[in-house]
Amino acid sequence: MEHHSLCCTVGIEELSSTGNVLKKATHPKVTVVLGRDEFKELQIQIDFPKKHSRYSVKEILIHKKFVKDGKATIKLPAHKIHLMLSNCPPDRLAFFLRTLQVKLDCLKQKGFVSQRAKLLSGKTQEFDEISPLTLKDLQTAHGRQEAQAARKSSTAPFKPSSLATSSSQPTPSMTGLKENRKRPICSQPVTTHGQVNENEAKRQKRAAMMKMTSVNGVSPSRIVVKQLQLTSEQNRVIETVKRGRSIFFTGSAGTGKSFLLKRIIGALPPNHTFATASTGAAACHIGGTTLHSFAGIGSGGGSVNQCIELASRARVAQQWRACHHLIIDEISMVDADLFEKLENVARVIRKSDQPFGGIQLILCGDFLQLPPVTKPGEKRRFCFQSEAWHKTVDTTMHLTEVKRQDDPHFIDILQKIRKGLCPEPVANALLATSKHCIDKEGVLATKLCTHKADVDEINKTELKQLECESKLFASMDSDQVYTSQLNFLCPVPAYLELKVGAQVMLCKNLDIQRGLVNGARGVVVGYEKSNNGYPIIKFVCGVTEPIKPERWIFRVGGGNTIVRKQIPLKLAWAISIHKSQGMTLDCVEISLGRVFEVGQAYVALSRAKSLAGLRVLDFERSCVRADPTVLGFYSRLELKHRMMHNGVEDDNEIFRPNPPTFSAKSGIKR
Ligand SMILES: Nc1ncnc2c1ncn2[C@@H]1O[C@H](COP(=O)(O)OP(=O)(O)OP(=O)(O)O)[C@@H](O)[C@H]1O
Ligand SMILES: [Mg+2]
């Protein structure tokens, strides 16, 4: 169902022969279906409440610049029609457009039935939903694109730079296209997340892809799926979300909670989905905004009535009313008081007696990581201790497969630390890391500090000590009015000062396969000779390459977005443990002498991908602490789960905090 239909808003523009708009109508909540007619030719059908319209598709133009925002325009020149799709779940829209494009390419390869043959056929009109994409379709379409590229390049003068783009448009000689077409390949359907339906099909697909790689030198993942696949437990969470349940999903650090949230965001309609997190850094990981900024209740410190008054301002209230799905990452840092106020505000502003005013909540985090910030002397109350939590959250699910680390020994150490346990072997293993030499070819380990003042001091001093000239890179912000908001939300500064030798960290996933991922560590080794003079970074993963500006887009409510374009780097001699929450780091040095918070040591240690990439200084067993209230909460959940399901896993609630399981890479079975 996912590949061929879209439920969204459709604007239909009818054009004159000169291209002027004659008529325009917008239809919210209609279904756009991709199908085939009786001649197996492509059709787009729009299902309105009482009728449908069909358009045969032979030539199309697709504008997909805003697919990530759930918007695209399909131009059908033969019909003089523009279909403007909006409020589509972004991932689903991307897959729909891909299906449309690929199926059309395949059809063009095969050839259309002539008008005369159609008239003479006497067939009755039919409409069948289109079949899912298969590897064969993808290859056929890919072959057609290559042939087009080859035709273009045979007429265009040779440009050396065309080699640089060959990774996205391989030439036939590079891909061995001919051999490729003859090779038998599986033709199993591919789903939204690129999974084929059967295990055997998976195996065949992998084998086919491996063959393609070896012959073509082209990454098959580029041809087939760019996205990493979800684990089965991640899939179960996404299915529960799609069923409309208000859910809290938890799991230890690195089990892919934020990763999954991004997929959930991609599966929900953007106009009604608000992605937030308790901190700016965490919000940035999921491309959202802070919970405070969404809620529009200032710091949340006022009384409930004051909060309601603040949230009643037109722009904020409109946001609350538009929200059907509220996502909150790093929920552990939201305290009970704030959660209760938000629940109250939601009911009043939305004029609904339902919990949270009927909004579906998608909460995610690990309460054994950083807790809510409290003032001295204030009693801490976690949001799971609130009445509002019990009223709202109807499903709790647990992710158990650790994806950040793949060494079972290190995962085991981290699991103990998470629960506040530090037996002697664990302490010894961590103490032994103080001798680790983790600085690699000029890339020094990032220091994780307990206090922010130390971070600023270290980065400033270290940069100053480099004797060469500095270079300043200024960001391009969509609107100067939002610069301070962007400074808060965006991981990269408005002005990035670099010097050769500066320790930096990548703040965006650029190329997962090559290790250019958010948190990847590197050092500045020079600048491009071109006009732009972008910094050339040598990364720990072995890649050395210039880093160009990237865009960060933040939804600030009401469908509005603010954008910053900047080099995706920040100084990385040091960062604070609070800022590091949610990150994955290559090489880390942690000073735990001044730990002041429960879960702080766990957050710091669990950023490292491996023990080998970790150096712990001033380690004392006393710095490992877990909050007893949280431990109680998790044990109660486990007990409840055992009692309800007698150890049998249920679709609605999974709770298996013990023991941790490991990703396939670790080689340990669950
Ligand atoms: N299904 C998956 N396949 C491959 N990699 C994955 C998958 N899920 C998560 N990852 C990777 O695992 C790492 C950790 O994921 P993520 O940051 O989402 O974990 P988390 O549970 O949010 O951790 P934390 O509690 O520290 O915030 C990331 O590098 C992410 O890309
Ligand atoms: Mg996370």
Automatic annotation (TrEMBL):
GO terms for molecular function: 5'-3' DNA helicase activity; ATP binding; ATP hydrolysis activity; DNA binding. Transmembrane segments: none annotated. It is an enzyme of class 5 (isomerase). The keyword DNA damage applies. Residues 5-104 form the PIF1/LRR1 pleckstrin homology domain. One of its GO terms (cellular component) is nucleus. Keywords: ATP-binding, DNA damage, DNA recombination, DNA repair, DNA-binding, Helicase, Hydrolase, Isomerase, Mitochondrion, Nucleotide-binding, Nucleus. ATP binds at residues 251-258. Residues 140-204, 650-670 are annotated as: Disordered. The keyword Glycosyltransferase does not apply. One of its GO terms (biological process) is telomere maintenance. Residues 483-526 form the DNA helicase Pif1-like 2B domain. It is found in: Nucleus; Mitochondrion. Residues 151-174, 188-198 have a biased composition (Polar residues). InterPro entries: DNA_helicase_pif1-like_DEAD, P-loop_NTPase, Pif1-like_2B_dom, PIF1/LRR1_PH, PIF1_helicase, PIF1_RRM3_pfh1. Residues 600-619 bind DNA. It comes from the Eukaryota. Gene3D superfamilies: P-loop containing nucleotide triphosphate hydrolases. Residues 229-425 form the DNA helicase Pif1-like DEAD-box helicase domain. Its cofactor is Mg(2+). It catalyses: ATP + H2O = ADP + phosphate + H(+). DNA-dependent ATPase and 5'-3' DNA helicase required for the maintenance of both mitochondrial and nuclear genome stability. Belongs to the helicase family. PIF1 subfamily. Monomer. Interacts with telomerase. This is ATP-dependent DNA helicase PIF1. It comes from Elysia chlorotica (Eastern emerald elysia). The lineage of its organism: Eukaryota, Metazoa, Spiralia, Lophotrochozoa, Mollusca.
